[in-house]
Amino acid sequence: MHETGDAETPEKNADESRAERDSVAAASTENATEKKPIGRLWFWLGWSLVACGLIAACASVQTVTWQLQTLWRYTEGQCRIVSAKVVRADGMYRLEVLHQVEIDGRRYRATENTEQDTPRYNTLEEAQARLERSYPVGSLQPCWYDAADPNRHSVLVTEGIRPLKWLTLLGASLAVMVLGGWMIWRATPAAPPAETPP
């Protein structure tokens, strides 16, 4: 009788251990099923944040690079608006603004370089409003020009050059990307642990 009891005990323990593992696995599966919709939401929301942050970061890097190059290569001054009008091109409304560098009353060659990118708008009303607000004919506006020869290059920048603003936006964009990456990591299910043999 004692031998039979000793033989049954390991089998009974093995069955109990197996049942306990199955119970834990079932509970884990149930929890994973409950969390799956939330995890999927976090996953796609994380990717959306990464995409938005990447787009904003690329735009910020481009603008910061252009502004720093302009500050390094050119001299800040004032330019007089000679003419300003709205022209239609490629299905959009583009501002065509001519300006002249003005130094001590002397004016140099008129040029059309306006802002980092020539302002373009989807509607005529938007273009007209920007034209009247920023480029009134005859007014003096901030610009950057080649000090060695103002006739060689000048660019009109009515809103000024503020790289710190764009560096701040770049930092915020990177923070958004990090947050999105963290959300993706949290939403990605971990690999199940390897089962140990009985």
Attribute tags:
55% helix, 3 helices, six-stranded antiparallel β-sheet, 6 strands, elongated, 198 residues, alpha+beta
List the helices and strands and how they pair.
Blueprint: H1 2-73, E1 75-89, E2 92-103, E3 106-107, E4 120-121, H2 124-134, E5 140-145, E6 154-156, H3 163-187
Antiparallel strand pairs: 1-2, 1-5, 2-3, 2-4, 5-6
Helix pairs in contact: 1-3
What is shown here, in short?
This protein has helices at about 1-75, 125-135, 165-185; strands at about 75-90, 90-105, 105, 120, 140-145, 155. It is α+β, with helices and mostly antiparallel strands and about 200 residues long.
Intertermini distance: 26 Å
Q: Average the pLDDT over all residues and give the rounded result.
A: 80
Radius of gyration of CA atoms, rounded to a whole number: 33 Å
Largest sheet: 6 strands, antiparallel
Give helix % range.
Answer: 40-55%
Number of strands: 6
Shape summary: elongated
Return residue spans where pLDDT drops below 50 for at least 5 consecutive residues.
Answer: 1-8
Number of helix segments?
A: 3
Question: How would you spell out the order of helices and strands?
Answer: HEEEEHEEH
Proportion of β residues?
A: 15-25%
